[in-house]
Amino acid sequence: MSPESFHTLYKLLGSVSGFIYPNELEIRWSILIVVYPYVTGLVAGAFILASLVKVFNVKDVQPVYRLSLLTALAFLLVAPLPLQAHLGRPERAYEIFLTPNLSSAMAMFGFVYAWYLMGVLLLEMWFEYRRDLVVWSREEKFPMSWIYWILSLFSRDVSERAVKFDMKAVRTITIIGIPSAFLLHGYVGFIFGSVKANPWWSSVLMPIVFLMSAIVSGIALVIVLYMVLIPLKGGKIDMKCLDTLTSYLFYAVIVDFSLEALDFIHRLYESEESIQILGALIADKLLISLVVIQILLGMLIPAAILVAVKSMKLDPELRKLLYFVSAILIQIGIFSTRWNVVIGGQLFSKSFRGLTTYKMEMMGVEGLLVALVFLILPFIILGVLVKIFPPWKASELGEAKTS
Amino acid sequence: MYRRSFLKGLLWFISARIFSRNGVTRAIASTNPDTTATTHANGKSIIKGYDPTRHRYAMGIDVDKCIGCNRCVEACTVENDVPPEPFFTRTWVERYVIKKDKSVHVENISNGSDGPKERLEEADILRSFFVPKLCNQCENPPCVQVCPVGATFSTEDGVVLIDSERCIGCGYCIQACPYGARYLHPKTRTADKCTFCYHRIVKGMLPACVEVCPTGARVFGDLKNRASRLVRFERMNKIHVLKPHLNTHPKVYYADLDGEVR
Amino acid sequence: MFERIPEQIRRLAIVFVIVIGGTVVLRYFVLPPSLFETRLHRESTIQREVAKQVKFAGTTVCGGCHEDTATVKRKGFHKNLSCESCHGPAAMHTEDPMTVKPFAPRKRKFCPLCHEYDPSRPTGFPQINVTIHNPLKPCITCHNPHHPEPPTVPRECSACHAGIARTKAVSHHALIACTTCHRASRKHKVSPRRVKPTKPDTREFCGKCHREGSKRKDAPKIDLSTHGGRYLCWECHYPHMPGVA
Q1: With an 8 Å Cβ cutoff, are C55 and B64 in contact?
Q2: What pTM was computed for the model?
Q3: What domain count does chain A have?
């Protein structure tokens, strides 16, 4: 916090309504902390989608299996960055590995992240791609052939028995990976849900709502990526896959909406002390981001579109357009959900008597530009990953061409 | 599905507690204070001649005596090098005005950090008073519970301190404190808060705010001392604490605390 | 037997051994144990905390040198005030008394920090209206800060009970003197919290003016035998602003 930013805070003094504790003027968890659960949510959601194929044997979505893994990896690599950037002392971040306080949910970040990255995602990707890596190391030119050979851990066995073992390993890891993915994103929900001081956050449902919105956003993201990448690679979109994906998306949206509606109804019905200030919070500060963007644009309209598409017989081009629009709306809605939870929870005073404002800075380590960079970076990484580890063989794309 | 990850996490926590090496973990349900080192490993006390286990500090506040003069806030700022800007404070005083139409108007009189003040019509006032606020040095502190690196901790004599050389500035403790007592120091970019003037009380002095209070509204004492101003305070007054439903067991005891105070 | 383990597992096992082994070596052999010892960190925190500079010396210290002032102050209304409440932090002064002098408030704007009238201040605390109370004169002209007896002992209660006086002044009871209803011994001005004035303890007291048949023309009349049951009048009616709901 530099003396220049005091200038912003002095201006903020004028935007306070009611009474807030003096230390509450400045919001501590900024847009970076909105980006972080959004990104890990996409990781968890994409992985759950991948598990649909391998554990629940939904053969129809096989075309997006490898894409989901790559998406999860791309976003996972970016996930620690917003956390690192928002720390007051980022150079001390390693302490979370040295002296983790075991009663703190936040302390498990380092370990869960390391486990998920190395013990689940990278391992699964290795088993899934191993055979192809060996083949590519033979077919490609230097230096790629060398890179593939190292990545395959100098493996050479592509016998049927070895490949069968690979597939069994993938299935086992995915089974372990599902609770790991839940832990990776669920602990973030728990970080918020366990803060008894904050009635907007403190809720048993918080980890579950976080997870469901993660699954929704993950599936929607993979749909968008699938619909963008396949044409770029000159292939044809598998409509059966897309239809199945959007069905699962729809089910997830229904569950997510039900949970959030339940939370809302429960709050209104119990009418605890905090309801007045939370009502003022929604009416004064979160009206657009909650009612318009999160609920209307992010859940109701996409759900209505999906219902319409499922019940009517529309031609593929129109279906693709509507799916794409719904998926984009859902992404915006889920981002807004994270915003409403993180920023919304800090906009009202714990004295329940006042509201403050969040003035997001443009530049600066916690500013909008840095947040946008962290949101765009995974796509760049994904582009590189898709180049190195193509999710579809030419035959798969070609198959679709003829079907 | 979530049950699996919950059980997994629970197992992790339980085994961590069993296998923890230096006893600094707090079981989630436990209300025992975090009894970590104020003695060296070889048993000698860190501060010469001072045995922290024989003390347990707490503060009493007599709301009816506070005149809202802010001497305490200024003394704290001087004694502890608190940043002078109005967005960071270790202690502050609130003014409550309950009007005859039952509306409650609250403002911070210590550093003007909550916007323009309403003009008070005296004839509308039903009752009005000042309430000093500070870190409650809870016995079951949520801030200590959530610190990811264990930078904030309770001493054996009941004061919650912050290790500013270990704090990573994540801000979780600031979110977890129900009383708004913590802030992020703009220069060190670590968490900071009232320490009961720990550097004074272990030498037998009073915290700066108690020292300068002209009306004796702030009462400091040792709960383990059978004769002290605080003990008399506890005997003669009905004691309230802030937000008792959150089970933080604060150690700042308010006498004559109005029900409207949050 | 080694050949029976699938090739993939063999290769992964090597990687895992390297990674986990490296972590173990790092943790237990390379990194200094002080990085992990929370106990050490807390010890050093306490040491750093305790080593912080003390800025306020504490009241008991001042009397050691300033005996005469302390003796005078011990008897006055400011006897419970710490010297540093007004004079500011004086720890440096105790170390180098000749060169470092504490602040001594002499201007008029200092004393009103405590004594300016404020409706939220408790009743019984001496307050003045700064604008009209001897304007422009510094307070210490008439009041010795170490023994702040007002130059004339307040006959009027309003010096300490400013809020009540102001409320009453615009009420129906404006012209009634405080002493009409409250008997206060002279000791009340010396030990105000211990020796309290009396409050009327019978209905007949208010009835002197307010019962039907009383000679007081401007007082509203009620039937004393039925109005208000067995309760004292001031349990419902606020005597300093009567008649307002």
Answers
A1: no
A2: 0.90
A3: 1
